[in-house]
Request: fold
Amino acid sequence: MTTPRARLTVLAGPTAVGKGTVSADLRARYPQVWLSVSATTRPPRPGEVDGLHYHFVTPEEFDRMVADGELLEWAVVHGRNRYGTPRRPVEERLAAGEPALLEIDLQGARQVRTTMPEAQFVFLAPPSMDELVRRLVGRGTEDAEERARRLATAEVEMAAEPEFDHVVVNDDVRRATDELVALMGLPAAVD
Ligand code: 5GP
Reply:
């Protein structure tokens, strides 16, 4: 008898490692992979579609979702906006025996670890700490204090890696996405 595959996969990792890029690649090349659509109080960026990239909600609506127990997990990310995973679509998906994927921050991953320990937890890691710092600092427009703050955050976030079941290195987006999909037990894209 084979062990049943974990049906819920949680992808998390440090800030700026490229979780959003991996999600975008997944949507483009693996439309059959069901990716949870989070609720957020952050305003949409240009090109973001309500209901596709996020459910963009007011702080009052987010409060209501929390109070009514509609979120599987939620967190304040970067000390600013709130983000959370609507519970019902995930439960419906899993009840149908279909795999589901959450792309959330580390605080959210820890909450899911508590409430759904049977999920599999995947840490998206940078190829190196130097590369993560390069991605974090970006165009170098931040001042020295902001750079130091981001570096400190990155170090704390990288220390979470041993909490995860699998590590996928984001050295190449397509390769990382393929590896994630394989961990979910789904066939690789043919293109
Ligand atoms: P962004 O605003 O750039 O789309 O996302 C910022 C961060 O929020 C990312 O690290 C992303 O993983 C995280 N995030 C997105 N959705 C959720 C969610 O539903 N729950 C939690 N805890 N974090 C989320």
